[in-house]
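W.,

You were right to be curious about this one. When I first looked at the sequence I had no strong expectations either way, so I just let the prediction run and decided to look at it fresh. Below is the sequence, 322 residues in total, followed by the output.
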Amino acid sequence: MLPYKLVYCENYDLHLGDHVFPSSKYRLIHQKLLAEGFADHNDFLTPEPARDEDVLLVHGQDWVRKLRNGLLSYTDILRLEIPYSHEMVDAVWLSAGGSILAARQALCDGGAMNVGGGFHHAFPNHGEGFCAVHDVAVAIRRLQADGAIRRALVVDCDVHQGNGTAHIFGGDDSVFTVSLHQANNYPSAKPPSDLDVDLNDGVGDNEYLNYLGDALDVAFQAANGRGFDLLCYVGGADPYSHDQLGGLALTLEGLKRRDRMVFDAARCRGVPVMVTLAGGYAHDVGDTVQIHVNTAHALAEALNGRPGPPATAGGTGSAPPR
């Protein structure tokens, strides 16, 4: 039996058709986790959609009304970069509910994974880059409003900077935001996170892990003794060397080491981890699925206290804030 719960629903699929974002990946991840015997049906929780009052903790009433009623303008849809449909809206509300559930479960078990979510480009009053509702921000605000957590750390390892995250939590010392991303990539305008690590094109495993180790040290030091009640990990699959929308050069092994580094850093400090599976546009969708499945394995290994890979990263002092 797994030491944590996976949150999933077949309706996570955004029904995008022939699109670079393979939203069918959620179903494929679920199938692979079951088929390989890593998880059984009892390891999965089925989420309820987020309530509008949850989404409104982050997003403006006008944006919620537009999404709910199909009132997006041509400009809204161009910025969102995915076609509008009621199925898409239902899916993102469900993903937000999934991240709320995963965050609550992480507080109980030390970790949990939403097999979806990570829509870090969504802003309060518009969507961007395939992201309509910022599920991670909704989960943090819901748990803060409930008094379940006070302070959260967001560690974003997508190849694209978490611009929505940075904007939503800018100036809020109850949430510390970290983003490791390719500098020469989307989005063109990058609002400052608390810690941005702008990576050059072609960065590979060891260099990336050095930067990540330093960034995690900086983030936990920034807690100033107050600590964090929850770490929200945006586990992007797109730093992969064969990703269509990325320009970094991480291998499958390097990406799993990345995940394990985050999980071990949280575990040794007693901070629960909520995982979302973001990004991923590999030429072979099977690679994207495997990257996310490896993230699930890395979380189980960390929570079970299994030794991680040899330490080859961290402590270089080479990850400056942007």
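Here's what jumped out at me. The chain is about 40% helix and 10% strand. And, maybe more interesting for your project: The beta strands are 5-7, 44-45, 111-114, 152-156, 175-182, 195-199, 230-234, 273-276.

Coffee later to discuss?

I.
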